[in-house]
Amino acid sequence: MNLRGRNKVSAEFNMSSMTDIVFLLLIFFMLTSTMVTTNALDLVLPKAQGKTDSNNNIAVSINKELEFFIDKKPVSEIELESKLLSLFSADKTKTIILRAEEGVPIEKAVNVLDIANRNQIKVVLAVRPK
Q1: Which alpha helices (DSSP H) does the chain contain, by range?
Q2: How far apart are alpha carbons 36 and 94 in whole angstroms?
Q3: At what angle are helices 80-88 and 106-118 packed, to 10 degrees?
Q4: Residue 100 DSSP SS3
């Protein structure tokens, strides 16, 4: 006499749906990991209440019309480096304060930073307080 029932429950586990999920997660993490900036650090910078000595600073300003100014005096982009070097020839402790208006292309600000880097001049980027 056969006592086994016709409806037999299988004890096997089907892994095909699990592998689909694993591959989808793998693709998701591979795509999103390329969008993460690895060179950037998330830093909380300190607040400063003091003022810098204005005698040791030279302001370089760039407005929206891409005009360059050294201490409110208009200067062309071509002669910017020579004017800065003549101002820094007497005192090497001076610092450039770079004031770039909102909307100025980053290439213009990088040009001033490159001039300062080539000539070992310190640069401070001025920002608007919150």
Answers
A1: 16-33, 80-88, 106-118
A2: 38
A3: 40
A4: strand
How many whole angstroms separate alpha carbon 85 and alpha carbon 122? Answer: 13
Chain center to CA of 38: 12
Nearest-angstrom CA–CA distance, 80 and 74: 10
Structure tokens at 23: 């591959």
Sheet of 68-70: strand order equals: 73-75, 68-70, 57-62, 95-100, 122-125
Token look-up 């019309």 returns: 65
CA–CA separation, 65 and 71 (whole Å): 17
Q: What is the DSSP letter of 68?
A: E
pTM, two decimal places: 0.56
- Model confidence over 68-124: pLDDT tens digits? 988 888 899 899 989 988 888 877 778 888 888 888 888 988 999 999 899 888 888
pLDDT for position 22: 93
